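Action item from last meeting closed. Structure (289 res):
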């Protein structure tokens, strides 16, 4: 089991008309991810509404802020229990056998226009044996073809843009990888968390986009950008692409008062049953549905 401590702080200057916020930054509570403790503080304090999506477990926090300063401070301790499987034992699932709840992750979406990539993926990966190894080959290709370069994309960048420009950040790697998997009739979805284990040379700790691919009747973890350690990921939001899981959706005029502050730390105490997250060669999963 992995125990992760996370601290997220967001600060805004809200314009004269006020603004409505929908945050998705709290750790999801699932069968294999247990929120041991958490604390949410707003400065100044404002009335909030919370909702949990029963399918994705996304936790939405809504508030209406008047003009002025707003700070959102969230801390949590999370235990994650990984399912570990040998890659050769993880098959692709035929479309006819996919659960109905998985089907939306086969379809094209705003940032993952997989219907435009059919010829590309069949030429690159169509002849490979099906299974976990084929998805690994897609991930390896994305890492080889795209260079991780901060500030090279924007909120409108799609998988097709990344395929053309061959540069991007974790979100762009995830969108391209998802689109390629879906074009192969393999369900894939976008997940947000924090970038545990990322090289400090890439910048301060940040939110992170990774991917889950549906194989062997489970969702398996993949990190197409290769910048972090999947074993140290905590699940925040899950969706078809980034449009579904922004950590902050804002309606109104605001300015970020400072960059997001994110701190992530893992326990390393085998006596308590807590493993230090490391890169693993096995297939890892923290979700069945």
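Sequence:
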């Amino acid at each position: 089991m992995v125990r992760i401590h996370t601290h997220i702080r967001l600060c805004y200057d809200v314009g004269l008309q006020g603004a409505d916020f929908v945050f998705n930054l709290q750790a999801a509570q699932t069968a294999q991810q247990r929120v041991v403790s958490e604390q949410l503080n707003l400065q100044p304090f404002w009335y909030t509404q919370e909702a949990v999506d029963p399918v994705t477990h996304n936790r939405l926090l809504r508030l209406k802020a008047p003009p002025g300063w707003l700070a959102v401070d969230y801390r949590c301790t999370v235990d994650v229990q990984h399912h570990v499987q040998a890659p050769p034992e993880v098959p692709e699932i035929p479309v006819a056998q996919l659960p109905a709840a998985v089907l939306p992750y086969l379809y094209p979406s705003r940032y993952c226009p997989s219907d435009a990539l059919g010829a590309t993926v069949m030429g690159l990966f169509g002849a490979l044996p099906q299974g976990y190894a084929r998805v690994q080959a897609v991930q390896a290709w994305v890492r080889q073809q795209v260079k991780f370069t901060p500030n090279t994309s924007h909120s409108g960048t799609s998988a097709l843009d990344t395929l053309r420009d061959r540069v991007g950040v974790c979100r762009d790697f995830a969108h391209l990888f998802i689109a390629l998997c879906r074009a192969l009739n393999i369900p894939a979805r976008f997940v947000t968390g924090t970038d545990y284990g990322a090289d400090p040379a890439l910048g301060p700790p940040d939110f992170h986009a990774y991917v889950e691919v549906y194989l062997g009747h489970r969702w398996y973890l993949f990190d197409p950008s290769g910048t972090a350690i999947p074993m140290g990921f905590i699940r925040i939001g899950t969706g078809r692409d980034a449009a579904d899981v922004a950590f902050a959706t804002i309606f109104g005029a605001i300015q970020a008062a400072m960059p997001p502050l994110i701190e992530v730390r893992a326990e390393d105490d085998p006596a308590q049953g807590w493993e230090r997250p490391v890169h693993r060669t096995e297939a890892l999963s923290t979700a069945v549905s």
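Note appended to the action item: The chain has four helices and 15 strands.
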